[in-house]
Amino acid sequence: MKNILISGGILLVLILLGLITWTLFGSKEEVVVVDPVTQDQFPISADIPRDDATSITISTAKGELLPVKNFFTDGETVPDPTNKGYYHLGNHFPFDSDMASTAPAIPYTITFIESTQFFNIGLYEEPISEARLEAEQYLRDHLGVTKEQMCDLNYVVSVPNFVSPLFAGDSLGFSFCPGAIEI
Amino acid sequence: MLFRAFLVGVTLWALPGGVVYAAIVPQCPLAGCRLCDVVTLANNVIAFAIQLSVIVAVLSIVIVGFKSITSGESGAGELQHTLVSIVMGIVIMLSGWLVIDTILKVLVGSRIGPWHEIECVDTPVATQPHVKTSPGVIAVKTGAVSGVAGVQCPPGNTACSPEALQSFGYTAAQANVMSCIAMSESAGNPNARNSGSSACGTFQVIRGSWKGSGDCGSHSACTNAQCNAQAALGLIQGRSNSRGSIYGDWTCPGCNLKAQACVDKYDPGR
């Protein structure tokens, strides 16, 4: 009788323990911790290409070559000191983190990623409709291309949540291009 | 009694501190801790105490059983009494837990769902100004924030495209979700800064939440695309031991409605 009580009691408690443990931790998944910063993912030059040519060619979204003004040497394009192969056309956020809080607001940024020939345009000030127009005008002037050619670029225009929750994350497009979102 | 205390002490001491911490302390979202996180902490403490008490109950039974075996028939009475007490204690404890858990859920507005799980509920986002319409426009958005997922960073954006994030160590599902979230957090810009906070970089990670190692160990590296991706991945992995969404640092109530839409679209069920 005594042994039955002992065995039964232990079994009961073990079952309860198992149930509670399974309930609390049963759905967990193992996640492998990976350190992604082991090497340069995109080993390309950090300096502005020293090409004296007044025009260069860039790849469009269709894979065609488009001759444009050499915006690398227009005096307003600066290489990103942190991310190799990133170039900022005109406006950019302060590279010095200590200056970030005191720097004036910027309406937009245009970042060219050399390895993929990609233009990333971010709008960072309301009204974002005006910010987009300014960015479009700046890019057109500095590339020296038509609106139709602008639409062929490998690019995205978007706005973050902290500027516009309504349009955050959407691909807004250039205002004059097919598929653009009016804002 | 001393032996029992010793066993409990050893059990507690042997528990890995990190596991206990991760199981109890919830990861606050980037925007800071909320009431929901405090309640989740209380709930986790209770859950941990329950587990601990069950361990103590098992040990008690083992000790009493051992004593009853060594002391012969005289120990049977004590064993029976102890077993009844333990079973009654567990029933009362679990009943009390159920009541408290229900109260906590009602307190934070969580749905009445699985026992012991607190689920933070998104607060509605304010309606945005109406967007004008005009002829000749291809696509127009109007009204309130819809919660519809935006686009992912395109392949050309090496800071946050799904391909780039996978090369940084993300799983395919994580890469798809976080690529979408990056667009709504920073417009895919590793240099983006929110002047109203320390939020910085592709995933707008604030200083207090920064998790990095090596060259990425400090928040001052937040504009480095790889470092920011690493920090974001650290936040995701840090939440793998908690019961909320692993993307909770971005999907928290009032944080970024589009972020939850990204999760729903690319990693449903999370």
Lay out the secondary structure.
The complex is a heterodimer of chains A (about 180) and B (about 270).
Chain A: H1 2-25, E1 55-59, E2 65-69, E3 77-79, E4 86-89, E5 108-113, E6 118-123, H2 128-143, H3 147-151, E7 155-158, E8 181-182
Parallel strand pairs in A: 6-7
Antiparallel strand pairs in A: 1-2, 3-4, 4-5, 5-6
Chain B: H1 2-14, H2 17-24, H3 35-71, H4 74-108, E1 139-140, H5 162-167, H6 172-186, H7 225-238, H8 248-251, H9 257-266
Helix pairs in contact in B: 1-3, 3-4, 6-9
Structural class of chain B: mainly alpha
Shape field of chain B:
elongated
| Count of alpha and pi helical runs of chain A | 3
Largest interface: A-B, 75 and 96 residues
Order of helices and strands of chain A: HEEEEEEHHEE
Which structural class matches the secondary elements of chain A? alpha+beta
Total separate domains of chain A: 2
Estimated helix fraction of chain B: 40-55%
Concise description?
The complex is a heterodimer of chains A (183) and B (270). Chain A is built from three helices and eight strands; from the N terminus they run αββββββααββ.
What report would you give on this structure?
The complex is a heterodimer of chains A (183) and B (270). Chain A is an alpha+beta fold and 183 residues long. Chain A has 3 helices and 8 strands; from the N terminus they run αββββββααββ. Chain A folds into 2 domains: 1-31; 55-158, no CATH class. Chain A has helices spanning 2-25, 128-143, 147-151, and strands at residues 55-59, 65-69, 77-79, 86-89, 108-113, 118-123, 155-158, 181-182. In chain A, the strands form 2 sheets. Chain A has a 5-stranded mixed β-sheet with strand order 3-4-5-6-7, covered by helices on one side. In chain A, strands 1-2 form a two-stranded antiparallel ribbon. The N and C termini of chain A lie far apart (81 Å). By secondary structure, chain B is mainly alpha-helical. Chain B folds into 2 domains: 2-108; 162-266. Helix content of chain B is 53%, strand content 1%. Chain B contains 9 helices and 1 strand, in the order H-H-H-H-E-H-H-H-H-H. In chain B, helix 1 crosses helix 3 (35-71), helix 3 packs antiparallel against helix 4 (74-108) and helix 6 (172-186) packs antiparallel against helix 9. Chain B is elongated, with a radius of gyration of 25 Å. Residues 121-140 of chain B have low confidence and may be disordered. At the A-B interface, helix 1, strand 5, strand 6 and strand 8 of A face helix 3, helix 4, strand 1, helix 6 and helix 7 of B.
